[in-house]
Description:
By secondary structure, the protein is an alpha+beta fold. It folds into four domains: about 5-110, 2-Layer Sandwich (Beta-Lactamase); about 135-240, 2-Layer Sandwich (Beta-Lactamase); about 250-365, Beta-Lactamase, CATH 3.30.450; about 380-554, 2-Layer Sandwich (Alpha-Beta Plaits). The protein has 18 helices and 23 strands. The strands form five sheets. The protein has a six-stranded antiparallel β-sheet with strand order 3-2-1-6-5-4. It has a five-stranded antiparallel β-sheet with strand order 8-7-11-10-9, sandwiched between helices. Strands 13-12-16-15-14 form a five-stranded antiparallel β-sheet, sandwiched between helices. Helix 17 packs parallel to helix 18. It is elongated and about 135 Å long.
Amino acid sequence: xxxxxxxRTIVEQIPEALFxxxxxxxxxxxxxxxxxxxxxxxxxxxxxEFIEAEEKSARSDGPEDLQTGxxxxxxxxxxxxxxxxxxxxxxQGAPITWEGDSALLYCITDMTRERLLEEDLRASEERYRTxxxxxxxxxxxxxxxxxxxVNQRFLDIFxxxxxxEVIGRPVxxxxxxxxxxxxxxxxxxxxRGEPVPSRYEFKGIRENGAPIYVEVSATxxxxxxxxxxxxxxxxxxxxxxxxxxxxRSRDFYLTLFEEFPTMIWRLGVxxxxxxxxxxxxxxxxxxxxxxxxxxxxxxxxxEDLEGFRELLEQSLSKQEPFSxxxxxxxxxxxxxxxxxxxxxxxxxxxxxxxxxxASFDITxxxxxxxxxxxxxxxxxxxxxxxxxxxxxxxxxxxxxxSRKNLRVGVILMDLDNFKQVNDKMGHLAGDExxxxxxxxxxxxxxxxxxxxxxxxxxxxVVLPEINHPRDAQKVAKRVLEAIRKPFLISGEELSIxxxxxxxxxxxxxxxxxxxxxxxxxxxxxxKANGGNRALLFNPSSxxxxxxxxxxxxx
Length: 554
């Protein structure tokens, strides 16, 4: 291979784009340059065709500078390819002799990717700055006792117009004399790393001298290598939940979001989570890498997950706010009730960009609600379903049995001579007996059966989906046998018997009221026959609760 062939091979294979220019005409392009400009080999090419009109008017050095060789120093320009693609390139020229005449050799480096990354970074920084400046809470950064940054909301709370009125001035100028010593002490303790209340209130002063009460939370962090305090201020007279966008950032603004004490997250338009702050990660004990995408759904209770997915899909399709209460596994493995609130946010172009959300631990509230629910539907002594819940379950059982052409058994019982137990051993012993009786019956029946207490010593067993009345009678017999076994009450053995009455749906009635009445009549007949027995309802027996009450008094 001759020397010229070797040179040609090098020029053809070099990864940089090269072209030779003379009098605004491109005489030669290597493959990389042809690819960049989107031209074929042996085409006549005018350089000016590839320079954008904006670029020509914006630059003092135009195409004539390129062709005269004035641009020997590296410069960055925009080139327009034949297919309309725009490239940011760095160009550097040098004079050469080409085919016996002077020309210019230009080396081109494609800088498009780097330029786009720079533009994206600037846009990202602007979004974060906009979010901070429009936050509902006042935000300040304090070094020592001096403000070094404040947002617009902070200025609004204290009645100032420009950041320059606050930056560089002490915190104490905004604190009322009544609380100045307390706030100064908290600030000094925080700087020394000593414990400080995570949230407290103080009386402040607006720029016009008017008093104002604010709630403050603060934390220590570092900014540009120096220790600072990030202070969040809220006017307690106009308290609002913070629903402003909190986005991931690599700079100062990310620090603000990361140190915020509420669990904050962000979803994209595809429903994928792309940001969770430190409070969320501390709560779950997981890393950001584990939580991103759909990872954050892994800590949701399996029973709540599908419903939350459906809610999320519906909200995304309608671009509407949403809220959900669900269970989330905490870092210690315990399930905690969490309230998730999501609000739509929009990009700088005004288009829907996903959701910014906050999560709150509402476990204590849910536990209180559950206690109220149980107290409304369960007997306070035995924790068995009360009459209200019994009737609801009996209605459901009758409807299911009717659809499936099955039966339902209703067994009503009370204890024989229960009054004597109370008189002899006291009411506390009687209560203990009823509790133990409820436990014994619950252990005896099926998982889908119901054991309820109507009041006093009256208990009911509901047997859904049985095939024959004798199925209920078998259960009644087992109940009798279970009650006959001695109870250990207050350290003493107590033997007692019971009388049971059974009614069957649909044989003896089609409603909860009628079935309970029929079971009551059968119970009365069992009492009349000496007690300690179980009888199936017989239309010819008994006259109901009135006759039974008379028999008890006698």
